[in-house]
Amino acid sequence: MVRQLAVILLGVVALGFAVAAGGGSVYWVVGAVLVGALCVVGVYDLLQTRHTILRNYPVIGHLRYLMEKLRPELQQYFIERDYDGRPYDRERRSIIYERAKGIHGEQAFGTERDIEEIGYEYLVHSLAPVPEPDEVPRVLIGGPDCTQPYSMSLLNVSAMSFGALSANAIRALNRGAAAGGFAHDTGEGGLTPYHLEGGGDLVWELGSGYFGARRADGRFDPDQFAEKAAHPNVKCISLKLSQGAKPGIGGVLPAAKVSDEIATYRGVPAHQKCVSPASHAEFSTPRELIRFIGRLRELAGGKPVGFKLCVGTRRDVLAVCKAMLAEQITPDFIIVDGAEGGTAAAPLEYEDHMGKPLTDGLMIVHNALVGTGLRDRIRVGASGKVAGGADIVKRLTQGADYTNAARAMMMAVGCIQAQRCHTNTCPTGVATQDPRRARALHVGDKTVRVQRYQEATVAQAVQIMASLGAESPAALGPHMLYKRVDATRTSSYADLYEWLEPGELTVDPPESWVADWTAAHPDAFH
Q1: What is the separation of C-alpha 197 from the centre of its chain, rounded to a whole number of angstroms?
Q2: In the chain, is it the N or the C terminus that has fewer CB atoms within a 10 Å radius of its CB?
Q3: Cβ(225)–Cβ(299) below 8 Å
Q4: CB-based burial of residue 263 (10 Å sphere; 0-12 exposed, 13-18 middle, 19+ buried)?
Q5: In degrees rounded to 5, what are phi and psi of residue 74?
Q6: pLDDT of residue 417
Q7: Out of 143-152, 336-345, 500-509, least confident range
Q8: How many other CB atoms sit within 10 Å of the CB of residue 25?
Q9: 3-state secondary structure at position 78
Q10: What b/e string do you get for 334-357 counting C-beta neighbours within 10 Å, with b at 16 or more?
Q11: Does position 83 have pLDDT exceeding 90, yes or no?
């Protein structure tokens, strides 16, 4: 209502100036014209649907777009800096916004990256590139105990709950997923009507709070779970063990965002901070975890069930693998979340100092599964600052089968990274439960942007694979990705890291793995 009042006030002022101009003063005439023009702009801003910022902040919102026009000079030095003063990754940001808006993403001149910097990574092309496949590759999720396998896209919407995001943002993401044929992870906030009404394929995430399948005492409710998991839109179940941005603690939804509606869907008190337990009540050992995975798959009617984690120690991962071997139960997929992943609310020191980066965690999980002979039964997803086609290809060369993106999908629906997610005052209506702010997010327009961004990014990934000489993701390998290790040397990931052979850990573990393999136990985390 405030935004409409501001425009009405401009109209009243313009009318007053016009009346005063009847006295013949040129100054009143000029004032009437200028204020009247601003009023017309404000009305246009309120009625248009492409720009959420302008709908929420008529007239003054144009200042942001003026700054965009002046890039890269002003943005480089005043907008695109993170907390320690270094320029934020402008390439990823540009990729997301341009693809979402349907802008052709080519650029004049050369790279803006410092290719001599230690840690610089690059993919090596083939002198004999192959044609791009007629059909975009997909990944079949479903092990031997799965009776309803799912064909997963190479890029999907990562876990973001209703609560963290507004209803309109959830609607746009889900409808975009439906239009583009990719999956939408619900986040741990429960399965809500906003996830279901758009018809998109869903990965229902179940966290330690068991929201949406929760008894009054906070424990898991198998009957609620089975009923909701049977919905045809629910294609997979993901058990959240930990999250990259805040590993070791549960999910957090600030009190300002726990509306009556959110409280109903989650089964928690309204207007109070909602904090999930740090660990699950249904299991406390690797063996119990694996048994619970099997139970969920049974309750879900044979749909794919897996888990998501930010890797802590290699010993814990190996303990879970030993539990799989002992119980002869395997998840259908594992999602590796990197410590660089984003979140709406987390303690600052957790964001900066806890959890393994995606590269390290991904390769631990991949090698542990290969070394225990389980890799062919389990698909691996990767999430953590995935934004462009090159990000997808890099993760596939490091051992992943597919990728998920959260921050990039938020930006596709209009997020400008104002970093006010935890305050409930998101200026774009993406990460708020304030209905006045959220209604400015036009679902139809943002649906198209999500679908457009995902389609263009996967197409770029497929083109890059063809340039590498890979006819399919299966032909990718660590020898295709290089890193600068010092001022004069670069090495491929095949040489930089140790890659285990199938079943090697169970027969003759290499010396570098012996200590962790010996200490890992299926009945205890470290």
Answers
A1: 21
A2: N
A3: yes
A4: middle
A5: -70, -40
A6: 82
A7: 336-345
A8: 12
A9: helix
A10: bbbbbbbbbbbbbeeebbeebbbb
A11: no
Distance (Å, rounded) from C-alpha 90 to C-alpha 81? 10
- Residue bearing the bigger pLDDT, 149 or 256: 149
- What residues does each domain of the chain span? 2-88, 139-519
Over residues 304-318, the mean pLDDT reads: 96
Q: What distance in Å separates the CA atoms of residue 501 and residue 498, rounded to the nearest whole number?
A: 10
Angle at 503 between CA 237 and CA 364, to 5 degrees: 55
Band of residue 295 on the pLDDT scale cut at 50, 70, 90? very high
The chain-wide mean pLDDT, for the chain, equals: 87
Question: Tens digits of per-residue pLDDT, 409-463?
Answer: 999 999 888 888 878 888 888 988 888 888 888 999 999 999 999 999 999 999 9
3-state secondary structure string, 133-195? CCCCCCEEECCCCCCCCEEECCEEECCCCECCECHHHHHHHHHHHHHHCCEEECCCCCCCHHH
CB-based contact 380:333 (threshold 8 Å): yes
Tokens 């919407």 correspond to 157
Residues 6+ apart with CB under 8 A from 195: 162, 170, 174, 184, 186, 202, 233
Q: Mean pLDDT, to the nearest integer, of 515-526?
A: 95
**Of the candidates 268, 363, 265, the residue with the CA atom closest to the CA atom of residue 317:** 363
Given the structure tokens 């040397």, which residue do they identify?
A: 489
Angle of helix 358-371 versus helix 314-327 axis, rounded to 10 = 30
pLDDT in tens, 22-78: 666 666 676 667 777 776 777 766 767 767 767 776 776 676 656 555 454 444 443
Per-residue pLDDT reduced to its tens digit, 96-130: 878 888 886 666 555 666 778 889 999 999 999 99
Cis peptide before 478 (omega within 30 of 0): no
Kindly state the tokens that stand for 426: 């998101």
Q: With 0-12 CB in 10 A as exposed, 13-18 as middle and 19+ as buried, what is 233? A: middle
How far, in Å, CA of 154 to CA of 381, rounded? 9
If we measure between CA atoms, which residue out of 411, 398, 401 comes closest to residue 361?
A: 398
Six-digit token pair at 125?
A: 């092309």
Query: In 3-state terms, what secondary structure has residue 200?
Result: coil
Query: For position 254, what pLDDT does the model report?
Result: 83
Question: What share of the chain in percent tops pLDDT 70?
Answer: 84
d(CA 386, CA 358): 10
Burial state string for 274-300 with b = 16 or more CB within 10 A and e = fewer than 16: bebeeebebbebbbbbbbbbbbbbebb
CATH 3.40.50.920, applies to 139-519: no
Residue type for 470, please? A
In which residue are the tokens 């702009």 written? 41
